């Protein structure tokens, strides 16, 4: 793997990508580790913060412009921020089943599915992996 395309990318793209890599690793560990413990809460806050960085930084990446400076992927960023708020809120309210559902959905849709689109030809992650 050659990370040169990512390291030489402009603006917030490296921050966005490395925050997503970190969130992917932390999130996978979080899903596998025991729930409801102090480490779970601490790692969870780290993951929420990382996901917020991923979502917010995406608004400054405007290489695909379909609606002004934005593309449909920016809608996913809005949904991610709303989902993070809902996940934290449901945990604080003790609605653990809803919290679990929000977090799993965020991990799958906002990281795995959205990340799969970065593998399309012409994208930086495609250049790195292929």
UniProtKB/TrEMBL annotation:
Keywords for the protein's UniProt record, in alphabetical order: Membrane, Transmembrane, Transmembrane helix
Q: Which domain of life is it from?
A: Bacteria
Q: Which residues cross the membrane?
A: 13-33, 42-61, 67-85, 106-124
Q: Where is the signal peptide?
A: none
**Which residue windows are coiled coil?**
none
Its name, as the record gives it, is DUF2306 domain-containing protein
């Amino acid at each position: 793997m050659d990370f040169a395309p990512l390291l030489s990318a402009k603006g917030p793209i490296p921050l966005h990508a490395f925050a997503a890599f970190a969130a992917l690793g932390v999130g996978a560990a979080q899903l596998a580790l025991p729930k409801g413990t102090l480490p779970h809460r601490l790692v969870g806050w780290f993951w929420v913060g990382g996901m917020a960085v991923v979502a917010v930084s995406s608004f400054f990446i405007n290489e695909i412009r379909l609606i002004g400076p934005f593309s449909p992927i920016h809608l996913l960023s809005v949904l991610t921020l709303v989902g993070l708020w809902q996940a934290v809120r449901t945990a604080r309210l003790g609605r653990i089943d809803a919290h679990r559902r929000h977090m799993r959905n965020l991990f799958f849709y906002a990281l795995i599915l959205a990340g799969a689109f970065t593998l399309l030809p012409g994208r930086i992650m495609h250049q790195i992996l292929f």
